[in-house]
C-alpha cells in the first residue's frame, strides 16, 4: 500500500498492438513510445516539459535504445532537464514503471510522471554465437596474410549459427523451460484440457472483436509507418477463428504430447502503452481530469516452473491488506500469457490445497466471475508485447471501470522467471 | 586603423586576422574591405610570422561573398575589369605569402569568401551542417572572378571544380573534405588546434592528383569542355545564360597558364557583369532580398517566433506544408479525419525528410516533430493554424466556426485557399480581422513564394505576422490583395488558356511548350497544366472567368470530363509513362504560327499590367518578384514589368492591338498600358 499522498491516473494511451510477422515490424520500441505518447501529451493542458520524470518499462530495447526511457522522453519533447529511466521486470516491466511512478508520487518526490511500457518483439535481436565473436576478434588481430589465411581456415559452418534472441528471452535460464512449458506444467497440475484452453482462447478473440465493433478501445492512437500505412486496430484478432480450427493446431512447446498451441498462447506482438500519473497538487495546478487512483501494488515470487500462477501470489496479499474478497473486485485484468495459465490461476484460487499450502489461507479464496475478467479480450487475442502489457492492462482496466460505473479493479500478470505483479486501482463513482 | 579587420599575434607569433565587417551582421567583400586587407597583408608579410590564420568574428559565417550592391553600379566593362584585377591582386598577395596560411571556416563561405579561402594554403572548416561552401556566382550570371576559376580547378581537378562553379550549389564541410576542398573538417572545439597543427607541421598543400590533375590537361580539356557545354545546355541555353559557357571556354583556353587564366577570368567577368543577364539576375537577387525583409517586422530578434504549426487537411498541399514546416524545425500537428490520408502524408513527408536531411538521426527528429493528429489535439496550443481542406466555402466556414473558439487568441489563423475571397471565409469568424491567407504553391518544398493575402477586414499586423512566419520557414512572402486568383494564378491563367486555345487550333503541344521554354520559362504551359492537374486548372479558370470574363476552352473541359487530368492520371495533353511525359516528335515540315510566342507571353504581360492597375500587389518590383518566384518566369529577363520596360511598353501595346484585331478582344491592351507609356 502506498503511504503518503494519493496517486491519480489522469490519462493514458496506447498503440494498436501489431502482431509480429516474421520480419522486424515497421516500428522500433521507441518509435512505438513516440507514436503513443505524442497525441497523449498534445491533448494535455500542461507542457511535456512539466513532467518530473519519465519511466518506461522495456524488456529488450534495440541496440540504439540504451535507456529507452530517456530516448522516448527526449523524442517526445519532455525536455533535456526531465530525468528519464528504464525499468525491467520481464513481462511486468510496464507495470513496474507505474509502480515506480506511483511510489515517487506517494512519497512526494514527484508530482507528474509519464510512465508506461513498450516492446518491439519483432525487433528482438538475432545474435552471433560466442564462437563467431571469438573468431571475429581473432580475425581483427590477424594482420599478416598468413595469419589471416590461418584464421580463415578455422571458420566453420557452426560459427554462422545465429542466436535467436526472442527464443532465448522466452526461456527460463534457471529451470531450463520455455514459458510455454511452464504453462504445460500448470495445465497438467490443474487438469486443464486442450478444449478448455481453446475455448478460453476463442472467447478472448470474440471479446476483442466485440470491443472493436463497439468502439470500446478508444485508448488506441493510430500508428503511421513510412510507407503510407495507417494501423488503427490490434491486428492479431482472428475473427474467423473457431474451436475446430483451434483444435487443429499442433502444440508448439511440448511438440508430441502437449496442449499449449500458438492458438491458445499470447501472440508475439509490438506495442506501447503510456499513463500519466499525478499528485493531488498536480491535478489542482493543471486542473486535470481524474481517471482513477492507484491504491496498491504487490510483487511476489514463486517457482519459475510455475510462473503462470504469479497473479495468484501477487493479488492475494492485496486482497488481504484491503480486506477484500475476489468478488469485491468489480473488474479483473489477468494478462493472458497463456490460456492455460489464466485458467490455472482461477483454478488455484478454487483449490483448497493450493490456497492452504501455497498461500497460507484457511480454505479456497473462491471464484472470479468470468464476465468480469478480461472483458475486452487479452494477450491471446491482442498480443503480449512483454514490456507494454503491464501498462496496457492498467489503462484498459480504468476504461472498463469508467464504462461500467464500477469502483475497483485489479490488473495482474505473471512474470517469466517466477514472479507475479498486481495493481489495485479505484475510481470514484459519478 | 582598420575598420573591418582586426589582427592579433599570439604567443607563438601566429597572426590571427579577424574579419568583422563594420555595421553589418554579415561579412561581405566590398572594395573598402579588400583595400584594408591588402594593406594588412603587406604589414603581416613584413613581420614574417610563422603563420597566418584568417577567421570571421560573425556568428553566421565566414564570408558570404562579394558585396552584390557594388555590382549594380558597374556599367562600363573597362571599369569592371580594373576593379576585378585589383581584387585578384589582393588574393594573389595572400596566395604568395611565404609562410603557412589557414582559412578557418564556419557557417557560409561562399563566392569571393571561398575564393579567399582558396588563396590560403590550407582550409579548416567546422563540420556543423551550418557550414556551407560554394561558388554560387553563376546564379548572378557571372563566374568566380578573384582567381577562383584557376585555384579551384587546380585544387580539385576540373570535374569537381566545374561542378561547384557551374551549378552554384553549396556543399558541407565533410563533402568539401571528400573532394579536397577542405584539409580538415572538424568539430568547432578543434578548429583552432587544427589550424595551429597545420602551421606547425606545414604539410604539402593539397592539389589535384592523378586523374583529377589529368582533367586539366590540354587534351582532356577539349573533350571535357564539349561534354560540360552539352550538359549545361539542357538547363541554361547560351543565348539566355552566357556565364557557364564563358567559364568553360576560359578554362579550356587558359588552364595551362596561370597569368593568362587570371587575366581571362577578369575580362570574362567584366563582360558578363555589365551584360543584361547578369544585371537582371542581380536585380532578381535584390527583389528576393526585399521580399525577405518583409518578414522581418518590427522586432528583429533572430530567435524563432513560432514554435508549433497546426495544419488542417492532409491532402497534397496541407501535407506538404506540414512536412516543410517540420523540415524547418517547427513542431507540426497535421489534422485530418481520414487516417489513410494522414498515412499518405506521412509517407511523403518521410520521402522529403530523407531527401533534404539525409542523416537518419535528423530524419527521425523531423518525423518526431510532425504529428499526425486525427483528433485535432494540436490545435489549442498552436502558434499558427493553417487551413488546407477542400476548396469549398461551406466546408471552410464550418471548420472556422469549429476551430476559432478552440484556438489560442493570439495564434495566427491562416487559410491556404487559392480562390475563395477571404471576405467570404471571414464571415464565419467572430474575429474576421485575424484571418490571413498564406497561399503556398505546389510543390511546397520547391516553390519559394508564398502569397500573403489580406482581405478587406484583415488586420495589417496579422498579415505582417503571416509574412514573418513565412520567412521563418525559409519562404518568400509576397503581400497581395484578396482579389480572385491573387497574383500568380491570375497572371498564369490567361497564358495557360492561350496555350490550350493554340492546342485547339491544331498547334502541337510540344511546339507551344518549346516556344515558351525558348522565351525562358522553366517549363512549357501545356506541360505545366498537365503537371498542376487539369482539374485544378479548370476549376481556377472557371472561377477567374466568372470574375474577369473570357471563355474556358472546351478542350480543357473535355479532358477533365473524360478523366484525363494530366500527369497524376497518366494522361492529359500528353501521355505519361510513370512520371515522364511522352512528347511526340513534331513533323519536320511543320511551321509554327509566327505569332506563337507573342500570343502566349503577351497575354501574361497584359494580365500583369491589369494586376498592377488594380493594385493586386504594391508595385511593379513586387509583381516581378512574385512572378519570378511564383512561376519561374525567365529570371534573366528580370520579371514581366522589367521586360516591358526593356522592350518598350509602346511596342508591346501596339503588338497587343494587332493580336486583338486578328485573334479577338482577349488581346485588347489593358487601360493601364497608357500609364506605363508615360512612366516607363
Plain-language structure description:
The complex is a heterodimer of chains A (430) and B (680). By secondary structure, chain A is an alpha+beta fold. Chain A has a domain at 177-216 and 295-426: 3-Layer(aba) Sandwich (Peroxisomal Thiolase, Chain A, domain 1). Chain A is built from 15 helices and 16 strands. Chain A has helices at 29-42, 68-75, 93-106, 130-141, 145-153, 165-169, 179-190, 194-213, 243-248, 280-286, 310-321, 339-350, 352-357, 379-382, 389-403; strands spanning 8-14, 18-19, 53-57, 84-87, 112-120, 126-127, 163-164, 171-172, 177-178, 223-224, 230-231, 269-278, 292-301, 331-334, 408-415, 419-426. In chain A, strands 1, 2, 3, 4, 5, 12, 13, 14, 15 and 16 form a ten-stranded mixed beta sheet that branches. A two-stranded antiparallel ribbon of chain A has the order 6-7. A two-stranded antiparallel sheet of chain A has the order 8-9. In chain A, a hairpin with a 3-residue loop joins strand 15 (408-415) and strand 16 (419-426). In chain A, helix 1 (29-42) packs across helix 2. Chain A is globular, with a radius of gyration of 22 Å. Chain A starts with 7 loop residues before the first strand and ends with a strand. Chain B has 680 residues and is of the alpha/beta class. Chain B has three domains: 5-274, 2-enoyl-CoA Hydratase, Chain A, domain 1 (Alpha-Beta Complex); 308-481, Rossmann fold (3-Layer(aba) Sandwich); 489-679, N-(1-d-carboxylethyl)-l-norvaline Dehydrogenase, domain 2, CATH 1.10.1040.50. Helix content of chain B is 50%, strand content 12%. In chain B, strands 13-12-11-14-15-16-17-18 form an eight-stranded mixed beta sheet. In chain B, strands 1-2-3-5-7-10 form a six-stranded mixed beta sheet, sandwiched between helices. A four-stranded mixed beta sheet of chain B has the order 4-6-8-9. The A-B interface holds A 34, 38-39, 42-43, 75-77, 221-222, 224-230, 232 and B 331, 333, 339-340, 342-344, 346-347, 350, 364-365, 367-368, 371-375, 377-378, 381.
Amino acid at each position: 500500500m502506498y503511504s503518503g499522498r494519493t496517486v491519480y491516473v489522469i490519462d493514458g494511451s496506447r498503440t494498436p498492438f501489431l502482431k509480429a510477422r516474421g520480419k522486424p515490424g515497421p516500428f522500433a520500441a521507441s518509435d512505438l513510445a513516440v507514436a503513443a505518447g505524442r497525441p497523449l501529451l498534445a491533448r494535455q493542458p500542461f507542457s511535456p516539459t512539466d513532467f518530473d520524470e519519465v519511466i518506461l518499462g522495456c524488456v529488450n530495447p534495440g541496440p540504439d535504445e540504451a535507456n529507452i526511457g530517456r530516448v522516448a522522453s527526449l523524442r517526445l519533447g519532455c525536455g533535456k532537464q526531465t530525468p528519464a529511466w528504464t525499468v525491467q521486470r520481464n513481462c511486468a516491466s510496464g507495470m513496474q514503471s507505474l509502480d515506480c511512478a506511483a511510489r515517487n508520487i506517494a512519497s512526494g518526490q514527484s508530482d507528474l510522471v509519464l510512465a508506461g511500457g513498450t516492446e518491439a518483439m519483432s525487433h528482438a535481436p538475432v545474435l552471433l554465437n560466442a564462437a563467431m565473436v571469438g573468431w571475429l576478434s581473432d580475425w581483427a588481430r590477424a594482420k599478416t596474410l598468413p595469419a589471416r589465411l590461418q584464421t580463415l581456415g578455422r571458420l566453420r559452418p557452426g560459427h554462422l549459427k545465429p542466436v535467436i534472441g526472442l527464443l532465448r528471452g522466452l526461456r527460463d535460464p534457471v529451470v531450463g523451460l520455455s514459458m510455454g512449458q511452464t504453462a504445460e506444467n500448470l495445465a497438467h497440475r490443474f487438469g486443464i484440457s486442450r478444449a478448455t484452453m481453446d475455448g478460453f482462447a476463442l472467447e478472448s478473440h470474440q471479446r476483442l472483436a466485440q470491443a472493436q465493433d463497439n468502439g470500446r478501445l478508444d485508448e488506441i492512437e493510430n500508428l503511421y509507418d513510412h510507407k503510407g500505412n495507417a494501423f488503427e486496430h490490434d491486428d492479431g484478432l482472428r475473427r474467423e477463428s473457431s474451436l475446430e480450427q483451434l483444435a487443429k493446431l499442433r502444440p508448439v512447446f511440448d511438440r508430441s504430447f502437449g496442449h499449449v498451441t500458438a492458438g491458445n498462447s499470447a501472440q508475439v506482438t509490438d506495442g506501447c502503452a503510456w499513463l500519466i500519473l499525478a499528485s493531488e497538487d498536480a491535478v489542482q495546478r493543471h486542473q486535470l481530469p481524474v481517471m482513477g487512483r492507484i491504491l496498491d501494488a504487490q510483487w511476489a515470487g514463486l517457482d519459475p516452473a510455475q510462473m503462470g500462477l504469479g497473479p495468484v501470489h501477487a493479488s492475494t496479499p492485496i486482497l488481504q491488506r484491503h480486506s477484500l474478497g475476489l468478488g469485491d473486485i468489480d473488474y479483473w485484468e489477468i494478462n493472458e500469457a497463456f490460456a492455460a495459465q489464466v485458467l490455472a490461476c482461477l483454478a488455484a484460487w478454487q483449490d483448497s490445497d493450493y490456497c492452504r499450502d501455497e498461500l497460507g489461507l484457511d480454505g479456497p479464496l473462491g471464484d472470479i466471475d468470468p464476465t468480469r475478467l478480461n472483458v475486452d479480450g487479452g494477450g491471446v487475442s491482442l498480443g503480449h508485447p512483454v514490456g507494454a502489457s503491464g501498462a496496457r492492462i492498467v489503462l484498459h482496466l480504468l476504461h472498463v471501470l469508467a464504462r461500467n460505473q464500477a469502483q475497483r479493479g485489479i490488473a495482474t500478470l505473471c512474470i517469466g522467471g517466477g514472479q507475479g505483479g498486481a495493481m489495485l486501482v479505484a475510481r470514484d463513482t459519478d | 586603423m582598420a575598420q573591418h579587420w582586426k589582427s592579433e599575434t599570439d604567443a607563438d607569433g601566429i597572426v590571427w586576422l579577424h574579419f568583422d565587417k563594420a555595421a553589418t551582421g554579415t561579412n561581405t567583400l566590398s572594395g573598402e574591405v579588400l583595400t584594408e586587407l591588402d594593406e594588412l597583408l603587406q604589414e603581416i608579410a613584413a613581420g614574417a610570422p610563422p603563420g597566418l590564420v584568417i577567421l570571421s568574428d560573425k556568428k553566421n559565417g565566414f564570408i558570404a561573398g562579394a558585396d552584390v550592391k557594388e555590382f549594380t553600379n558597374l556599367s562600363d566593362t573597362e571599369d569592371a575589369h580594373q576593379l576585378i584585377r585589383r581584387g585578384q591582386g589582393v588574393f594573389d598577395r595572400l596566395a604568395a605569402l611565404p609562410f603557412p596560411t589557414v582559412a578557418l571556416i564556419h557557417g557560409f563561405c561562399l563566392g569571393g569568401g571561398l575564393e579567399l579561402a582558396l588563396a590560403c594554403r590550407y582550409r579548416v572548416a567546422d563540420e556543423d551542417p551550418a557550414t556551407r561552401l560554394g561558388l554560387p556566382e553563376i546564379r548572378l550570371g557571372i563566374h568566380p572572378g578573384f582567381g577562383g576559376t584557376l585555384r579551384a580547378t587546380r585544387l580539385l581537378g576540373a570535374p569537381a571544380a566545374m561542378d561547384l562553379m557551374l551549378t552554384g550549389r553549396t556543399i558541407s564541410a565533410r563533402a568539401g573534405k571528400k573532394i579536397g576542398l577542405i584539409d580538415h573538417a572538424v568539430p568547432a572545439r578543434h578548429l583552432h588546434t587544427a589550424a595551429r597543427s597545420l602551421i606547425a607541421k606545414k604539410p604539402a598543400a593539397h592539389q589535384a592528383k592523378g586523374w583529377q590533375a589529368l582533367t586539366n590537361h590540354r587534351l582532356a580539356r577539349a573533350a571535357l569542355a564539349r561534354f560540360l557545354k552539352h550538359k549545361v545546355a539542357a538547363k541554361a541555353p547560351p543565348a539566355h545564360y552566357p556565364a557557364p559557357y564563358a567559364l568553360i571556354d576560359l578554362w579550356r583556353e587558359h588552364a595551362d597558364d596561370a597569368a593568362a587564366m587570371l587575366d581571362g577570368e577578369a575580362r570574362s567577368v567584366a563582360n558578363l557583369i555589365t551584360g543584361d543577364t547578369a544585371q537582371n539576375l542581380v536585380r532578381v537577387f535584390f527583389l528576393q532580398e526585399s521580399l525577405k525583409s518583409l518578414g522581418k517586422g518590427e522586432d528583429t530578434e533572430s530567435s524563432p517566433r513560432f514554435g508549433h504549426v497546426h495544419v488542417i487537411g492532409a491532402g497534397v498541399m496541407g501535407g506538404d506544408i506540414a512536412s516543410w514546416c517540420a523540415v524547418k524545425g517547427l513542431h507540426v500537428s497535421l489534422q485530418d479525419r481520414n487516417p489513410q490520408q494522414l498515412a499518405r502524408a506521412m509517407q511523403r513527408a518521410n520521402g522529403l525528410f530523407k531527401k533534404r536531411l539525409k542523416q537518419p538521426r535528423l530524419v527521425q527528429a523531423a518525423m518526431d516533430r510532425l504529428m499526425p493528429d486525427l483528433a485535432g489535439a494540436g490545435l489549442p496550443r498552436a502558434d499558427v493554424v493553417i487551413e488546407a481542406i477542400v476548396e469549398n466555402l461551406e466546408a471552410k466556414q464550418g471548420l472556422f466556426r469549429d476551430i476559432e473558439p478552440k484556438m489560442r487568441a493570439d495564434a495566427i489563423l491562416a487559410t491556404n485557399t487559392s480562390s475563395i475571397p477571404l471576405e467570404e471565409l471571414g464571415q464565419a469568424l467572430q474575429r474576421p480581422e485575424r484571418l490571413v491567407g498564406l497561399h503556398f504553391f505546389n510543390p511546397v518544398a520547391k516553390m519559394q513564394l508564398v502569397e500573403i493575402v489580406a482581405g478587406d477586414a484583415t488586420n495589417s499586423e496579422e498579415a505582417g505576422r503571416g509574412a514573418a512566419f513565412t520567412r521563418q520557414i525559409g519562404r518568400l512572402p509576397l503581400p497581395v490583395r484578396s482579389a480572385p486568383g491573387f497574383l500568380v494564378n491570375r497572371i498564369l491563367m490567361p497564358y495557360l488558356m492561350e496555350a490550350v486555345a493554340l492546342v485547339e487550333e491544331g498547334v502541337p503541344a510540344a511546339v507551344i511548350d518549346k516556344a515558351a521554354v525558348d522565351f525562358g520559362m522553366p517549363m512549357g504551359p501545356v506541360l505545366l497544366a498537365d503537371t498542376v492537374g487539369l482539374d485544378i486548372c479548370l476549376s481556377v479558370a472557371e472561377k477567374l472567368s466568372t470574375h474577369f470574363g473570357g471563355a474556358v476552352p472546351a478542350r480543357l473541359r473535355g479532358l477533365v470530363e473524360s478523366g484525363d487530368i494530366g500527369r497524376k492520371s497518366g494522361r492529359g495533353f500528353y501521355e505519361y509513362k510513370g512520371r515522364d511525359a511522352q512528347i511526340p516528335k513534331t513533323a519536320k515540315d511543320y511551321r509554327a504560327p509566327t505569332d506563337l510566342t507573342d500570343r502566349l507571353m503577351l497575354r501574361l504581360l497584359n494580365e500583369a499590367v491589369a494586376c498592377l492597375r488594380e493594385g493586386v500587389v504594391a508595385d511593379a518590383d513586387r509583381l516581378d518578384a512574385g512572378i519570378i518566384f511564383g512561376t519561374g518566369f525567365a529570371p534573366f529577363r528580370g520579371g514581366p514589368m522589367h521586360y516591358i520596360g526593356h522592350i518598350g511598353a509602346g511596342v508591346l501595346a501596339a503588338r497587343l492591338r494587332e493580336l486583338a484585331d486578328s485573334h479577338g478582344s482577349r488581346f485588347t491592351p489593358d487601360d493601364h498600358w497608357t500609364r506605363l507609356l508615360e512612366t516607363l
